[in-house]
Structures are given as structure tokens and as C-alpha cells.
Amino acid sequence: MLAAYGTVFVVAAAVTFLLTPLVWRAAVRIGAVVVPDERRIHLRPTPTLGGLAMLGGLLASLAVASRLPALELVFDTSEPLGLLLAATVILGVGLLDDIREVSAPAKVAGQVLAASVLALAGVTMFYFRVPFADFFVLSPDFGFLVTVLWVVLMANALNLIDGLDGLAAGLVAIAGGAFFVYAYRLSDVGLLGPENMAPVVVAATCGLCVGFLPHNFHPAKVFMGDSGALLLGLLMAAATIAVGGRTADQFSGQTYFFFAPLVIPFVILGVPFVDTALAIVRRARRRAALSQADKEHLHHRLLRQGHGPRRAVFILWAWTAILSGVVLVPTYTSEGNALVPFVVVALAVILYTLLHPGVRQTARQVKAELGESQDGTENGLDGAGGSDLGASAAPVEGVP
């Protein structure tokens, strides 16, 4: 099984890597180029539509997977075909927005359509578990609705975090890798059947990100665009639905994971979800539309603190990796379940405290009162780690 999953990963990575240069050349020819403006911090026009290369990698990897004897049961259902159809729909929505801007309601409507295709193909939640409470058995109609909402939430969360070169691709690679380990562990103890497509989906998703990342890391040659971000969100949503929403069994010794399995994506994909929540609260306080752009995302705050684009990306990658490790350790050690929620909350509090704008503002006020000189170093416009925001600033794409 591991060899089969490894094959899926390699095919997805190789095909995506090879297709990406072709896609960016095509994007230049048709004018699908992100031009610098007040919403973005990159300084040169950069082609987008990287999601097309990812879709090619997904198609190739699933085609190969369908021919592997170890994975034949996965393709005995309509779910993989439904996943491909939904992926094509949501990628089309993103492509339209990349080429010519689409209104927020129209974009959400397209996401709902893609999620509905996924649900109609059978990728739906059977159970919904509430943290510190019991799980709910969902009726077919209600399960369909929850599934659609889950896909839309996941897709937009990843789209919001796609703001620096390599950030979204790296986060999903880490998150997908962690989720694969978790899903494989559940398969190993018999809680996920061989027909469950989640391990195949996350193996392919990791491959797409790894294959795309060499072209997207700072300084990026191409952006994944909304098409790529929405596609990755749909794939991770499908995987988490197939794992967390499909079983009522208890995993002995691992209370945390089956007490609230649908919270796992929030933990493993912690950075995008925290960023989404902060963005919603921030815009609600200002009475601004959720689609209105600003520069208050977590990655923007890191840049203002003096971190260069690469360092900011590495910090957010590391935070996601730590979260993933925290939730995975009890799965293999049978110890520490009770500590997991507290460690996760502590990490979130530390991150928010360090990145809250008031921290830097207070520090500047204190220095001003002490008579210390203020210069661009304080806001990260020059000095160590922040100088590359000038001539070689990282592109920001996909920020609504």
C-alpha cells in the first residue's frame, strides 16, 4: 500500500512540475498576468493559472492509481470520478477569476456547484462531531448541506492564506503529509477500509504541491492563482470528509482524535483557519465587505515585523508543522491526548500575541518615550530580514 501511495505522490509531483512551465508560458500569451498594484507587494508582472498544471497532475496521478492493484477498491465507487468533476468545476471558477475578476457571490455560487457535484457523487458526511460533546448522525439532506458548507469553508480558507510565494503550496504539503500519516494509521488499525479514497487524495495533493513549489517559491515564476488555491481546498475538504465524517468507531486510547475528528482539519490547517477567522472579525468590525482587500493577514504582519518574504513563509510552515506534530504524536504513543487541546491553544495564543499589531505599536511608543530614534527598521521596511521587500518583494496572489 505504501508503494502504491508513493507512486501516486511521485506521478502527481512529476507531472505538475513538468506542466507548470508550459502553463506559465500560455498564461503570458493570453495575458493572464498579475500586475503589481496597491493590493499586492510584488513589483513585476507575474503569470498565474498554475492551478491548470495542478489539475493535470491530479488527473495523471489518479489515472495511474486506478491501474494499481493495491488501490483497485478505491475506484470501484463513483467517488473518484465525482472528485475529478468537482475539481474541474472549482478550477474553472478560479480560472475565470484569474483571467477576469468575478464577483464574490458568483465565485461562491461556483464553489457551491463544485461542492454539490462532490456530494452527489457520494463524498458526503455521515457524522458530525462536536468538540466536548457527542457526535450527530446526519440525515442525507442535512449531510449534503454540511458537506457543501465544509467544502466552501476549506476552499476559501486556503485562498485567504495564499499571499506569499510558496506559502499555500508549502502549508498544504505539510498539512496533507500529516493527514496522510493520520489516515494511514487509521487504515492500519482497521478503522478505514481499503475503499476509502482519503489516503490516495492526500498523497496526490502533497505531490501537486511539491511539484509546483519549485516554480512558486520566492521569487515566484508563476502563481497558482485562485484556480490552484480553490482546487487544493476542495481536495483537502474531500479527504477530511472521507476520514472524519465517515466513522462512528472509537480509536482505543486516542480519545482526542475521535472525540472531534472534524476539528482535525482546523488543527492541521491551523494557519489558514486562524487567518480566515481573524479576517472575518477584522472586516466585520470595520463594517467592510468580506471580499474587500486589506493587508492585515498573518503573513503581512510578519513582513511588517521585519521578516523577509522567505523567512515569513518558513515561520508559517514551521507553525503548521508543529501543529501537525502535536496532533499526530498521541496517535502513535497512546499518551498525551488530554494535553493536545491545551498545547494547540497555547501555540495559537503565542502566534497571535507575537503578530498582533498592538505589540509592535506599543514597542514603538515605549522607545519614543525613551527618546530613541525611530526609522524604517521598526516597520520592517529596511534592516535585517526586511530589505527584500524592496526590489525583490514577494508576490501576493489570491488575497481577496
Quickly list its features:
two-stranded antiparallel sheet, globular, 400 residues, mainly alpha
Distance between the termini: 40 Å
Q: Radius of gyration in whole Å, from Cα?
A: 21 Å
- The tally of helices reads 15
- The secondary structure category is mainly alpha
Strand/helix succession: HEEHHHEEHHHHHHHHHHH
Order of strands side by side in the largest beta sheet? 1-2
Mean pLDDT: 76
Tally of discrete structural domains: 1
What does this structure look like?
The protein is 63% helix and 2% strand. The protein is built from 15 helices and four strands. The strands form two sheets. The chain has a two-stranded antiparallel ribbon with strand order 1-2. A two-stranded antiparallel ribbon has the order 3-4. It has one domain. By secondary structure, the chain is mainly alpha-helical.
Task: Give a nutshell description of this structure.
The protein contains 15 helices and four strands. It is mainly alpha-helical. The two termini are 40 Å apart.
Topology, please?
Elements: H1 2-30, E1 33-34, E2 46-47, H2 50-65, H3 79-99, H4 104-120, E3 127-129, E4 135-137, H5 140-161, H6 167-188, H7 198-216, H8 225-244, H9 255-259, H10 264-268, H11 270-285, H12 298-304, H13 309-333, H14 340-355, H15 357-369
Antiparallel strand pairs: 1-2, 3-4
Helix pairs in contact: 1-2, 1-7, 2-3, 2-7, 2-8, 3-4, 3-8, 4-5, 5-8, 5-11, 6-7, 6-8, 6-13, 7-8, 13-14
